[in-house]
Design brief:
Layout (H helix, E strand, L loop, with lengths): L1 H13 L9 H23 L5 H23 L3
Helix pairs in contact: 2-3
């Protein structure tokens, strides 16, 4: 039970912005990262290919989202 609470607290902290509020941008980046990893895994394991434009779109969302999130850390109010 304590491990589940620690895991949930870790996820909440990871998805929170500098003010401590859960950020929808971080949730989207987290979900797109998960989708990228899952599609990559299926491609390696089962040979199921994802269209290149879908993969590239997810990759761009993740890269830009991580860049903006990093920039937020350096531009505190």
């Amino acid at each position: 039970m304590k491990m589940m609470h620690n895991t949930m607290q870790f996820l909440k902290d990871m998805l929170s912005d500098v003010d401590g509020h859960v950020s929808s941008k971080r949730i989207v980046v987290f979900l797109c990262t998960a989708a990228l990893l899952i599609s990559w895994g299926y491609n390696i394991q089962y040979g199921i290919t994802v269209e290149e434009f879908i993969f590239d779109g997810l990759l761009y969302i993740v890269v830009v989202g991580l860049g903006v999130t990093t920039a937020e850390k350096f531009s505190r109010k």
